[in-house]
Amino acid sequence: MKQRLRVLLVPSLLCWLALPACGGGGSDRSPETASPTTGERGTPQATETGSSDAAPNQADRDRRSTPSRERAASAQSAFPTVLTAPRQVTVRARVEGQVVRVRREEGARVRADEVLVVLDARPYQFALDRAAAEAKLMLLTYNSKARLRGEAISENEVEIAEAEYRKAQADSALRQLDLDNTSIRAPISGYVSERRVRDGQWVARQEHVYTIVDPAELWAVALVPTELAAAMELGDPVEVSVGRGEQQQVAVGSLHLRSPVADPGSGRIRITVRIDNPDRRLTPGMPASLIIPAG
């Protein structure tokens, strides 16, 4: 009996002695394991303290900068417009005739009084020759009667002969003018923006044949509130935003004109901004906006 009891107690005693070596004391964890900055195997873990502090700081900066951006945007107003060239003319034929030669194409640079189109001048040359001959005949008649004034010719007849000569002179001058107008010339220096005739075409009197534009000076016209217009003086600089998207650029012009009356439809004032454009960087017809400070 005692032998059997020893056999049962010895294994139990050995197990009890081995418990601390097997790690059975689960509640006695080391401070390193319980550290909030390490993992289960003692590796350092990132804390959330830094990110939680940085996020509010960035948010605060955004909140502080947003009002300033809004104030900057609200401190100025944009008024849409289109660039125009004040020096743009429509060239018209002063006489009718058939086009003999077109001398300038679209985009060509021209000088004032340069010939653009040549019309058939022969009918006008014939008319001039006839008018000049008639004027010469009238001059001879007048001189003959003037020598006989008071003798065989009355004063009234001499005056009539003189009037007929003056009339023939005027007709000859008109024929010369028609002949000169068979060469259609540029009225201003600039660039050909439109050509509407071709060789061999019949052109009527007053027909539109060319358009010439001088882009060295451009205008931007817009309607602005009366309070903004009243705060501006002629010659004040005005920013003009030209184009859209990646092609957008900013030019600086000056207040050139300001209407003394308000537009009946909108109640606003029409202003004109003048932009110097000697390098042709800007072109008429480009969309633009006048950028005007709010006050």
Share in helix: 25-40%
What would the CATH topology of the largest domain be?
Answer: OB fold (Dihydrolipoamide Acetyltransferase, E2P)
Oligomer: single chain
The second-level CATH architecture of the largest domain is Beta Barrel
**What is the 3D shape?**
elongated
Encode the helix/strand succession as letters: HHEEEEEHHEEEEEHEEEE
How many β-strand runs?
14
Question: What distance lies between the first and last C-alpha atoms, to the nearest angstrom?
Answer: 113 Å
Count of helical regions: 5
Outline the biggest β-sheet: 6 strands, antiparallel, barrel
Strand content: 25-35%
How are strands sequenced across the largest beta sheet? 1-10-13-12-11-14
Radius of gyration (CA) equals 48 Å
Structural class: alpha+beta
Low-confidence stretches: 1-5, 19-56, 65-73
Q: Tell me the number of structural domains.
A: 2
Question: Descriptors for this entry?
Answer:
295 residues, alpha+beta, six-stranded antiparallel barrel, 2 domains, Elongation Factor Tu (Ef-tu), domain 3, OB fold (Dihydrolipoamide Acetyltransferase, E2P), 14 strands, elongated
